[in-house]
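Side project, low priority. Logging it here so it doesn't get lost.
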Amino acid sequence: MTDRHKNDAYGDIDASSEAEAGVQAPIPAATVVLLRDGADGAEVLMLKKNSKITFGGMWVFPGGKIDPEDYAGLDAADHDAAARQAAARECLEESSVTVEPGAFVHFAHWTPPPGPQKRFATWFFAARVDDEHEVSIDMGEIEDHAWVSPAQALARHAEGEIDLVPPTWITLHHLSLYPPAVAALERFSANPPKVYQTRVAKDAQGNRVAMWHGDAGYEPWDATASGARHRLVMAPGGFVFENDAEDY
């Protein structure tokens, strides 16, 4: 049996600093969580990536890297505004849904652990849309799409029916705590964006663990440390979120 969950996308975890030799600089990117109200609460638009590309086979939110064109008309240092432009552009390209950048709520920023693999430092935005938006995918880069409740997506992942990378899983967990779309957006708007500078290490059972600020093992880069928890245990049998340090 492998010692890694199949959706553990963090690759080589030997490095412990961005300055170490061989560590790839993170590529700026942006993604948008589109929410609508369904019969049982909020539903989120998810897209299935083509198996032959980055994050192949994963179910993700619309998004991609920030291109130079996203800085058109902006100050070169205005990365937040460029990220909004990129999120809107990628949303249109991947799903045919048009959302104005100003409608986005910035609720998180994710950076993978240092390593030699390709990495994306990603702005996460959320926006509410109505049923008049018709989703259309190209059947090339994107193979399928679905509107699904966050709780249902997590349940399907637990059963091994769909593949989710850790940032997507954590985002769905966060959304599941606030079922109506408006409640989730109000929660995001009322709080500063969460910053996830991910660190990954192995726990006493040999499971790879993604840790974030507030976890007792975060500063020493030690998943075996006792104390507060803000982590995702990526055991081969399933993801387990442990948190008593961060308010969601």
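Brief comment: The longest strand covers residues 27-38.
Revisit when time allows.
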